Amino acid sequence: MSGEYIAFLALALVALAGGIFMLNLTKVVHMVVALVFTFVSIAGVYVLLSAEFIAAVQVLIYSGAITIIMLFGIMLTRHQDDGQSTGSPLRKALALLATLAFGAAVYVGIRHLDFGEEAAALHEKNTEQIGVALYTNYVIPFELTSVLLLVALVGAIILAKKDDKEAGEK
User: How far are the Cα atoms of 17, 29, 40 from residue 117, in angstroms, in the given order?
Assistant: First the structure.
């Protein structure tokens, strides 16, 4: 057992535990904190895979920005906490069985996966390789994605303003 393998197991356990806690906790803020643990541990797995750029993006965008947006959304909206149970024991048992079946299917799929031959220059200047590929071969899809995100942001603002006007009229 190498240190890399132990680190992977620890990060994988933290990611799984964060996901399970996120699904089973009742308070929304606690769910977001569990989600942060999941995001950060996934970033750690990216570091183990020598994908430092993706790990930094994971921490900055998901663990930082998305989590803050979720917390602001939670704080700025009205929600009722009725304290209802999350489901019957039969439903929980079926969900557990479905999760185990999905995990087994993923394990079998990965076990029989053939990646082909290993890339020669995989770990060399990976951030530079991403930048060159993004701004040479994929510049049009990159810009179209940025325009699409801008349109979605403007649409969300318009919908939020419309909801404020309707709430003020009632």
Answer: 34, 45, 30
Encode pLDDT of 81-107 as tens digits: 555 566 788 998 998 999 999 999 999
Q: What is the pTM of this model?
A: 0.59
Rounded CA separation 78/58 (Å): 29
SS (H, E, C) the chain: CCHHHHHHHHHHHHHHHHHHHHHHCCCHHHHHHHHHHHHHHHHHHHHHCCCHHHHHHHHHHHHHHHHHHHHHHHHHCCCCCCCCCCCCHHHHHHHHHHHHHHHHHHHHHHHCCCCCCCCCCCCCCHHHHHHHHHHHCCHHHHHHHHHHHHHHHHHHHHHHHHHHHHHHHC
Q: Could you state, in order of their start, the residue ranges of all structural domains in the chain?
A: 1-90
Distance from C-alpha of 142 to C-alpha of 156, rounded to nearest angstrom: 21
Query: Are 151 and 159 in contact, with CB atoms under 8 Å apart?
Result: no
- Provide the b/e sequence for 47-73 (b: ≥16 CB within 10 Å): beeebeebbeebbeebbeeebeebeee
CATH architecture of 1-90: Up-down Bundle (1.20)
